[in-house]
Amino acid sequence: MSTSLVEAVTSWYSTAARNLPWRRPGATPWAVLVSEIMLQQTPVARVLPAYERWLAKWPTAGDLARDSPGEAVRAWDRLGYPRRALRLHASAVAIVERHRGEVPSSYLELRALPGIGDYTAAAVAAFAFGQRHAVLDTNVRRVIARAVGGSALPDSSSVTVAERARAISLLPDDEKLAYRFSVALMELGALVCRARAPQCAECPIVSVCAWHAAGAPSKLVAARSQGYEGTDRQVRGRLLAVLRSARGPVARAQLDVVWPHDEQRVRALDALVADGLVQRVSTDEFCLPV
User: What average pLDDT score do residues 168-182 get?
Assistant: First the structure.
């Protein structure tokens, strides 16, 4: 099963893979790290222009580390979940201080960078350095759950010990082939073996898929609208937009006009300060972190 799965997925990937900049031969480990942080909870289409602008401004970790965390937040613009900008800046500083400006190749050293979790460390080690690691993002977990486990979706919201062991057992011993298999599984989950409306007729591993062989049992997750209008997230976004457009402290009065509900606006601003995304200059003045 494992050999046929690897051959089928990697063969499919050779012709079906999207031409993404962080996968190209010239992509640096720093470029791969930036892409992995940006791609968390954000679709590729939204990431692409932000990724290109980011690397044009900060082509190395050292370039970003020399700038302020506020500039990172400013450049993040409307990509969403802006704390990722702070984590990326903190990682850049650590890369300069601990690794002379070079993204480390070791999983453990990557994992020790600020804000870098298991998935990101494994992804960078695999995709930037060609190492053999189980890269368990949502797409890969779903493909393995269906093809090997016979389940529509993983049993747990977080990666279990058994799930990780199964993923590692599927990896080829050869590091280059293991890397290619990992990225191919991810692409298969993104393009074909989707959470909703999987394209089984187009799947290269349908003949060895345990879930399909069992009749694709269990109901798939229905599409859910997360909602945005009227939420604290929307208020935070509007406040940050004002601060990004300014090149200095912003008076509270300028922030007051972005949202009519005082209690919610104050709560959102306080949360931004607590998250380190906004700095309080004085009682009535705020700016991006410096």
Answer: 95
With the CA atoms of 33, 37, 39 and 40 taken in that order, what torsion angle do they form, in degrees rounded to the nearest 10?
A: 140
- Prediction pTM value: 0.91
CATH code that applies to domain 232-287: 1.10.10
Q: How far, in Å, CA of 53 to CA of 49, rounded?
A: 6
Among the listed ranges 105-109, 126-130, 226-230, which one has the minimum average pLDDT value? 226-230
DSSP letter at 154 equals -
Residue 254 has pLDDT above 60, yes or no: yes
pLDDT tens column, 64-116: 999 999 999 999 988 999 999 999 999 999 999 999 999 999 999 999 999 99
Look up residue 242 and give its two tokens. Answer: 């004002």
179 CB burial (10 A radius; 0-12, 13-18, 19+): buried
Query: Pick from 186, 194, 187, 191: which is nearest to 136 by CA?
Result: 186
β-partners of residue 280 are 286
Cβ-Cβ contacts under 8 Å for 41 (sequence gap 6 or more): 80, 81
- Cβ proximity of 283 and 251 under 8 Å: no
Query: What is the residue-wise DSSP string for 160-225?
Result: -HHHHHHHHHHS-SSHHHHHHHHHHHHHHHHHTS-SSS--GGG-TTGGG-HHHHTTS-SPPPPP--
Task: Give the model's pLDDT for residue 219.
Answer: 65
Catalytic residue numbers, as ranges:
36
Q: Where are the domains of the chain?
A: 232-287
Rounded CA separation 190/138 (Å): 9
